[in-house]
Design a protein that fits this description.
By secondary structure, the chain is α/β, with parallel strands linked by helices. The protein folds into four domains: about 170 residues, 3-Layer(aba) Sandwich (Rossmann fold); about 55 residues, no CATH class; about 170 residues, Molybdenum Cofactor Biosythetic Enzyme, Chain A, CATH 3.40.980; about 70 residues, 2-Layer Sandwich (Alpha-Beta Plaits), CATH 3.30.70. It contains 14 helices and 20 strands. Strands 3-2-1-4-6-5 form a six-stranded mixed beta sheet, with helices on one face. Strand 14 and strand 15 form a beta hairpin. The radius of gyration is 29 Å and the shape is elongated. It binds flavin mononucleotide, adenosine-5'-triphosphate (ATP) and magnesium ion. GO terms for molecular function: ATP binding; FMN adenylyltransferase activity. This is FAD synthase. It catalyses: FMN + ATP + H(+) = FAD + diphosphate.
């Protein structure tokens, strides 16, 4: 068989392994279910195109294995009796539609076209046909792959069938290695910069493949197989799939009660038993708070957590749902106490899965000693992780939905990571910079009893200005802080306070 021959003759060992595993899964399925009981869910996408060829090869081998002596020369490899289902939709790309139909014709697929949503369509199909298992081109990293194995029963609430995912462990790179090695046709959109295809409403070419802009500003895209980092395969999917939206707010002159609530908020979590025991000082937290403040973010919460998966999971779970962004550091690495990433996975209810791109970075960094299977560090939370690469970083930053993992251990390292992070977040439109905070500080030797009531009055009169106070020592002066996004309002609040006391009662602190 052509496909089998092409893979076996190639010197891509990795592809051979992936291919053999996928064929094994297909053969297991064909041993468990009769041909009438299986179906193939085909939609013309690259993953289902890979699966089509694997299924044809697997089916042929299965037939040859079970029925060698009686092989019918007419019923050869060009015949593929597995029922193929396509959920046709008016919002599919015309190129996807025509590729699906053309492919069905070329390979004589027995197509069932379903014009209902997935769930209702499957309900109707399963009522009518004896289908018990459906082959899908789902891969780890797809949002729908979370929690799935190669054989996964359909979810509760769905009609009962077995989802069979022979290419679950294939990476983006494996998919292209296969399609190119086997020289099979794929949908033309992949040559126009599309890297993962949903509907016409949520899919654009992947900006990471955009290479020129001509005078009339027409954009040109490289083919999908040139995307260097498969993790970014879904970058052409319109936002809802990447992460929770960040409501970066830029109005600093809204004088309403809800003013502070409308700002972007961040929570900072340090992980470290040694910080809790007082053995070491946290050298990152305060610098990070200053950085966030400088871009106009409100830091709502700072905490220190034990090196314990459940403790990290609980804290991340609490903070991720009440903040736009969570920054976590400490406990990242291969040591037994490095449980931060696993804690994050637990907080999101996903498992840890090997991440090939990350493994590649680690291999460059640590050398060949760490192979994928043994390298615990190459395991990342499945389906929610995005690697953020920057030329100045040796290892990409890890982002799990709205949780960013920092590896900095001191202020200098944080400076560097922060600069890269800001650049990356801006270019990915994950972070719209908000107006920075401005603040004014006034020191006074007035007693706190004297200052208390006038300060409350100012806070009521200027709800858009944060009015706070702190002491440097119990007996020393009080420092009053005014913070907000509108300099004029801050000045007005400070002046209003000064007017309530004798001249010279306050002096400005730099
Ligand atoms: C054959 C088939 C079986 C599916 N089985 C399930 C399932 O068991 N559970 C589930 O949540 N979604 C199932 N889905 C839906 C997919 O996960 C779907 O891609 C996902 O809900 C996202 O769809 P959307 O991006 O088009 O909205 C199935 C889809 C197909 C085509
Ligand atoms: N409209 C559909 N009809 C039939 N099967 C579908 C449909 N949409 C998705 N599927 C099934 O779900 C799998 C996963 O879909 P997904 O969009 O992730 O992959 P793909 O379309 O094959 O490739 P790409 O990631 O490039 O879009 C498909 O391989 C296919 O088996
Ligand atoms: Mg698709």
């Amino acid at each position: 068989m052509e496909i089998d021959k092409a893979v076996r003759e190639s010197d891509d060992i990795r592809l051979k392994t992936k291919y053999n595993n996928a064929i094994y899964v297909i053969q297991r399925a064909l041993a468990l279910y009769s041909v009438e009981e299986v179906a193939f869910s085909f939609n013309g996408g690259k993953d289902s195109t890979v699966l089509l060829h694997l299924l044809r090869a697997g089916y042929y081998m299965h037939k040859a294995g079970t029925n060698l002596s009686t092989r019918d020369p007419v019923n050869d490899e060009t015949t593929f009796p597995i029922r193929t289902i396509y959920f046709e939709s008016s919002s599919a790309f015309p190129e996807i539609n025509s590729f699906t139909y053309d492919t069905a014709f070329v390979y004589k697929l027995q197509m069932d076209i379903i014009r209902l949503d997935f769930k209702s369509g499957l309900e109707a199909l399963l009522k009518d046909k004896p289908i018990r298992a459906i082959f899908l081109g789902v891969r780890i990293g797809d949002p729908t792959a979370v929690g799935q194995e190669q054989f996964s029963p359909s979810s509760p609430g769905w009609p009962p069938f077995m989802r069979v995912n022979p290419i679950l462990d294939w990476s983006y790179r494996d998919v292209w290695a296969f399609l190119l090695t086997c020289k099979v046709q794929y949908c033309s959109l992949y040559d126009q910069g599309y890297t993962s295809i949903g509907s016409i409403h949520d899919t654009v070419p992947n900006a990471l493949l955009c290479h020129t802009k001509t005078d009339n500003s027409e954009e040109k895209y490289k083919p999908a197989y040139l995307l260097p980092d498969g993790r970014l395969e879904r970058a052409g999917r319109v936002k809802k799939l990447t992460s929770q939206p960040l409501n970066a707010v830029s109005n600093g002159v809204n004088h309403e009660e809800s003013h502070w609530k409308s700002m972007s908020t961040a929570s900072v979590i340090a992980v470290g038993d040694e910080i809790l025991s007082g053995t070491v000082e946290d050298r990152v937290g305060s610098v990070l708070c200053r950085k966030l403040h400088s871009i106009g973010w409100v830091v709502s919460h700072v905490s220190i957590t034990r090196n314990d998966i459940d403790a990290v999971a609980d804290e991340v779970d609490r903070q991720k749902s009440t903040n736009d962004m969570v920054f976590i550091y400490g406990g990242v690495g291969p040591l037994p106490s490095d449980v931060t990433v696993a804690g994050i996975a637990k907080a999101f209810g996903v498992r840890m899965a090997p991440d090939e791109e990350f493994e590649e970075y680690l291999r460059h960094l640590i050398g060949e000693r760490c192979t994928g299977d043994r390298n615990e560090m190459a395991q990342l939370p499945e389906g929610i992780t995005e690697l953020m690469h920057h030329d100045k970083l040796r290892v990409p930053l890890i982002k799990c939905q709205n949780v960013i993992i920092l590896t900095a251990t001191n202020a200098a390292e944080l400076e560097k990571e922060w600069d890269c992070l800001i650049e990356l977040m801006k270019s990915n439109e994950l972070l719209v910079m908000t107006e920075p905070f401005v603040s004014k500080r006034l020191a006074t030797t007035l007693s706190d009893v004297e200052a208390a009531q006038p300060l409350s009055d100012i806070a009521i009169k200027f709800p858009d200005v944060y009015t706070g106070a702190y002491r440097e020592s119990r007996g020393g002066s009080i420092v009053i802080t005014f913070t907000g996004k509108d300099e004029a309002r801050i000045r007005a609040a400070a002046e209003a306070l000064c007017k309530k006391f004798h001249p010279g009662a306050f002096s400005e602190v730099d």
